[in-house]
Specification:
Blueprint (H helix, E strand, L loop, with lengths): L11 E4 L5 E13 L5 E12 L8 H15 L4 E5 L3 H4 L5 E2 L2 E8 L19 E6 L4 H14 L8 H6 L12 E6 L5 E10 L2 E9 L2 H12 L6 E8 L4 H4 L6 E8 L1 E5 L2 H7 L6 E9 L4 E10 L2 E6 L6 E4 H7 L6 H6 L3 E3 L2 H11 L12
Parallel strand pairs: 3-4, 10-11, 14-17
Antiparallel strand pairs: 1-2, 2-3, 4-13, 5-13, 6-11, 6-12, 7-8, 8-9, 9-10, 14-15, 15-16, 17-18
């Protein structure tokens, strides 16, 4: 059903001299939520491929370069993708910004620790079990509130829900939904899941409230005749392990890149997001794929940034793909300095970068495109 929401004016087709199609690159129109709550238009790159007979001839490179040039001309400051083959896209300037892991919980050992010292998860709402087809409008409402408040989230345009385009629960595949409503009946959270031979698999849990998230986790872990609850793509900062009495009830594996960001207009992208503190940082950004190398002075006051080209000596020298990884605050600058991906002038530059780029929570994106 992905085909039903393709935007034909955003598709590129590579053809041979005699008109045979040999490669494609396409894009969906989205909004991306940034640190500070701002949202910017972005393109979700998809359907990048070349027929086997024409690989290793530069076709994919030409498609990606043309696409990025077109997106920059449209005035977009960043673009995003989900990488099926992560080794490919860094050379085009994309860097991973969100990460997911597989979390599995042994249900028989999944007792919650109700003597935690933090604020109790008070909940006066209800969870009802409904079929996906009977609650699409409520799911769309809840997801929209989530994406407005969560860094890294992409919107899900109404036509995706209406046409069932995407993965569950957007698609029309059979799914059970645990729908949470407030005391006055307003939907404010949901979990989408499937049951098969004693395994409950969660597609996604969506809410803006940590207390509601815990209620929904308790809901799926409370199913009878289930031996294991699996979250195939959980955010890396999911707190479930710390909410249970038995840490060993939870196993996690993988730590895979999910959403990738490509910065197209450095000053516009840096001005668009919110920042954690005040300070100045000079960045030298190398962009070999689009043929650029520029220095920018980033000045942040009261969480808002100004950014312009400068001749000053750089505090950090980095590839545009690594700026993409830093952009949403989920990858600490120090990690990339230690990995040899960023060259820092001194320790003070690293400290300032850490203070400016940090966010309170790791960015996360549910949407599959």
């Amino acid at each position: 059903m992905f085909w039903s929401v393709l935007e034909m004016d955003r598709n590129l087709l590579a053809v041979t001299d005699d008109g045979r199609p040999v490669g494609t690159a396409a894009g969906y129109s989205f909004e991306l939520t940034l640190p500070g709550g701002a949202r910017v238009p972005t393109t979700g790159v998809t359907n990048v491929g070349v027929v086997p007979s024409h690989r290793r001839r530069g076709t994919a490179t030409a498609l990606m370069r043309r696409q990025l040039e077109d997106l920059r001309a449209r005035g977009e400051c960043v673009t995003v993708l989900l990488a099926m083959e992560p080794t490919i896209y860094r050379r085009f300037g994309y860097g991973p910004v969100t990460f997911s892991r597989r979390v599995a919980v042994t249900r028989a050992r999944a007792a919650f620790d109700d003597h935690r010292l933090g604020p109790a998860a008070r909940d006066e709402g209800t969870v009802e079990v409904v079929r996906r087809r009977d609650c699409v409008a409520a799911l769309e409402e809840v997801y929209e509130q989530h994406r407005l408040h969560h860094v890294g989230a992409l919107d899900r345009p109404h036509r995706w829900w209406a046409r069932g385009a995407g993965h569950p629960p957007v698609s029309r595949d059979q799914r059970w939904i645990g729908l949470h409503r407030t005391a006055d009946g307003r939907p404010d959270g949901y979990v989408s899941y499937a049951l098969d031979d004693g395994v409950l698999t969660v597609d996604e849990t969506v809410t803006t409230d940590d207390a509601v998230r815990e209620v929904l986790d308790r809901f799926v872990l409370g199913h009878d005749l289930v031996r294991e609850v699996v979250f195939p793509q959980a955010p890396t900062d999911h707190p479930l392990r710390w909410q249970l009495l038995d840490h060993d009830a939870v196993t996690s594996s993988g730590d895979e890149p999910w959403l990738w960001v490509r910065v197209l207009d450095v000053p516009a992208a840096l001005r668009a997001r919110g920042w954690a503190g005040d300070g100045t940082l000079v960045l030298q950004v190398e962009d070999p794929f689009l043929g650029g190398s520029s220095r920018y002075e980033l000045t942040v006051v009261d969480g808002a940034a100004e950014c312009a080209t400068t001749a000053r000596e750089p505090d950090l020298v980095l590839d545009v793909s690594d700026l993409g990884s830093l952009y949403l605050g989920g990858v600490p600058p120090r990690d990339l300095v230690r990995a040899g991906r960023i060259r820092a002038r001194d320790e003070d530059a690293v400290v300032r970068a850490e203070q400016l780029f940090r966010t309170d929570r790791a960015p996360w994106s549910h949407h599959v495109f």
